[in-house]
């Protein structure tokens, strides 16, 4: 299924764990250090460096650009490091997150409550994913280097729905499905 950003609730309502998507539009990057700063701004009732409402944050710290490309390798980082911050950002209007690995209970509950979505991207596919990124610009926290917040323009960014608003969890469901009792 092809989807465009910004995300709307009607699109999110159509997505289910296991759905494969191709995302086009603007997505933002941020990892743990940037997440901490964003949540601190929210707690201090200060404006964020970008409007996160209806947006997707991709958990990535890309490598420097390869000559002739807008970005270097851009594979997902492990999502659980952002779990302490995700519920606050979802409450504040964030709709989507892209990373790898599973999420904790609080994040899954916040996804349901605030009608968000968690997508998985394939780890080890950093060069492939980078091909879907057509434009990249640092918009905040340049001092964080690779972990600075970037605004990415993507076309057909490949991802799979891991956690949906209905409480489905692709990882948990597949562990149950393929678990062998000994």
Radius of gyration: 16 Å
CATH-scheme architecture? Alpha-Beta Barrel
> Could you name the ranges where pLDDT drops below 50 across 5 or more consecutive residues?
none
Output the helix-strand order. EHEHEHEHEHEEH
Structural class: alpha/beta
Note the gap between the termini. 38 Å
CATH superfamily: Fe-S hydro-lyase, tartrate dehydratase beta-type, catalytic domain
Task: Give the overall pLDDT as a whole number.
Answer: 93
Shape: globular
Number of domains: 1
Specify the CATH class: Alpha Beta
Largest sheet: 5 strands, mixed, barrel
Care to describe what's here?
With about 180 residues, this protein is α/β, with parallel strands linked by helices. The chain has a single domain, classed as Alpha-Beta Barrel (fumarase), CATH 3.20.130. The protein has six helices and seven strands. It has a five-stranded mixed barrel. Strand 1, helix 1 and strand 2 form a beta-alpha-beta unit.
List the helices and strands and how they pair.
Blueprint: E1 2-4, H1 9-14, E2 20-29, H2 32-43, E3 56-58, H3 86-91, E4 96-99, H4 105-113, E5 117-120, H5 126-131, E6 133-140, E7 149-163, H6 170-178
Which descriptors would you attach to this protein?
182 residues, alpha/beta, fumarase, 5-stranded mixed barrel, 7 strands, globular
Brief summary:
Helix content is 26%, strand content 26%.
